[in-house]
Design a protein that fits this description.
Elements lengths: L6 H18 L3 H6 L5 H9 L18 H14 L1 H21 L2 H12 L5 E4 L15 E4 L3 E12 L6 E7 L9 E7 L5 E6 L10 E12 L3 E2 L5 H37 L1 E2 L2 E2 L4 H29 L5 H26 L10 H11 L6 H13 L1
Parallel strand pairs: 1-4
Antiparallel strand pairs: 2-3, 3-7, 4-5, 5-8, 6-7, 9-10
Helix pairs in contact: 1-4, 4-5, 4-7, 4-8, 5-6, 5-7, 7-8, 7-9, 7-10, 8-9, 9-10, 9-11
The chain binds acetoacetyl-coenzyme A.
Cofactor: FAD
GO molecular function: acyl-CoA dehydrogenase activity; flavin adenine dinucleotide binding
Enzyme class: oxidoreductase
Length: about 375
């Protein structure tokens, strides 16, 4: 068993850490407050090869492993989870699914620009009445011979207004239930496709989240991914990998809050000594550090299983469940350690606390992760 990161992993970690400090930290409070999308930062992340990290160089990607992806997600999320969620959706939910299940033509046309970071991708599964219950798709894609006719509404779509390529999950044959669901590649600007207003969110406010409306959108047959009826399995497989990304995002939010707390505890004086000399604070920091280390090991284990082509659905859900709960607990404690300063924006921990909450909700709530974990245990 090997617990050390390789030289290559350490190099990628340094690059992501430098990027987060130099490119993400400046302006982070304003971007959060004004819900400003980090367009320039995403462009630069594309140039660094972080938008298609695990995609083969044959399709414009960086050919890195899932451990590297986890490392990068942690480092970016220490500072800016609004940027890292865009990175995660593009890498896991869009690029991974296209590379694994798309055909040659789809990969050349859509995957290459996504992996190179020239365009952004979005993954459209959730609906007003189908969040956790993902099989209850109301969006329909009726087979019209040479094309499908797409109708319906998708909710809470990350990249709703900035993405150019959308993977849309829709029901083609209601009688077949989840086996009648398909996944389609839809382009921005197609007739009948409209983007709703931006959601005013509690956290990850720099990322753009929108509803999308499809009204008789013509989707060419060649834009269906996989065999007829493969869409639900496609979505579940993409989400498995996505959960490693969001687990690592939660890990980063927790470790960002922890690092700020250690620094503050050493600097801040109270009762004639540094906060760090008070046992009440030391115990909090010890609990934070222990949980973060456990979350990191779960993230790396899930990524390692994926890299070694072993089943990883349960491991990814365990990582996401534990890391997101850790992010919530850690950020609440970080605000507590900072006292009044923790409650104002300049000290960053209140933003991290707001950002932490979404990691318990998107790509499957904590309750969904428990369903996935327990099914594997009991089957
Ligand atoms: N890979 C491949 N196939 C899978 C799979 C996987 N990981 N998991 C399930 N399937 C298949 C099953 O084998 C089954 O197929 P058959 O019937 O043909 O054998 C089929 O899918 C249905 O599976 P289940 O019976 O397990 O389906 P279910 O409805 O009972 O439960 C669930 C599934 C786990 C609850 C699922 O609905 C789920 O994960 N829900 C949460 C959805 C979610 O995560 N949404 C996030 C939206 S995206 C997002 O958040 C992005 C963002 O903004 C950041």
């Amino acid at each position: 068993m090997q617990f050390d990161l390789t030289e290559e992993h350490l190099m990628i970690q340094r690059a992501a850490r430098d990027f987060a400090q130099n490119e993400l930290k400046p302006g982070i409070i304003e971007r959060d407050e004004h819900q400003k999308f980090p367009a320039e930062q995403i462009k630069k992340l594309g140039e660094l090869g972080f938008m298609g990290m695990m995609v083969s160089p044959e399709y414009g990607g960086s050919g890195m492993d899932a451990i590297s992806y986890s490392i990068v997600m942690e480092e970016l999320s220490k500072i800016d989870a609004s940027t890292s969620v865009v990175v995660s959706v593009n890498n896991s939910l869009v690029c991974y699914g296209l590379e694994k299940f798309g055909n040659q033509a789809q990969k050349q046309k859509y995957l290459v620009p996504l992996a190179q970071g020239d365009v952004i991708g979005a993954f459209c599964l959730s609906e007003p009445e189908a969040g956790s219950d993902a099989t209850s798709q109301r969006t329909t894609a009726i087979d019209m011979g040479d094309h499908y006719l797409l109708n319906g509404t998708k909710n809470w779509i990350t990249g709703g207004s900035t993405a150019s390529t959308f993977i849309v999950i829709a029901q083609t044959d209601v009688a077949k239930k989840h086996r009648g669901i398909n996944a389609f590649i839809v382009e921005k600007g197609w007739e009948g496709f409209t983007v709703g207003p931006k959601e005013n969110k509690m956290g990850v406010r720099g990322s753009d989240t929108h509803s999308l409306m499809f009204n008789d959108v013509k989707v060419p047959k060649e834009n269906r991914i996989g065999e007829d009826g493969f869409g639900f399995k496609f979505a579940m497989a993409a989400l498995e990998g996505g959960r490693i990304g969001i687990a690592s995002q939660a890990l980063g939010i927790a470790s960002g809050a922890y690092e700020l707390s250690v620094q503050y505890a050493k600097e801040r004086q109270a009762f004639g000594k540094a906060l760090a000399d008070l046992q009440a604070i030391q115990f909090k920091l010890a609990d934070m550090a222990t949980e973060i280390e456990a979350a990191r090991l779960l993230c790396y284990r899930a990524a390692w299983l994926k890299d070694n082509h072993l089943p990883y659905a349960q491991a990814a859900s365990m990582a996401k469940l534990f890391a997101s709960e850790t992010a919530m607990r850690t950020t609440i404690e970080a605000v507590q350690i900072h006292g009044g300063y923790g409650y104002v924006k300049e000290y960053h921990v209140e933003r991290l606390m707001r950002d932490a909450k979404i990691t318990q909700i998107y790509e499957g709530t904590s309750e969904i992760q428990r369903i996935v974990i327990s099914r594997e245990l009991l089957k």
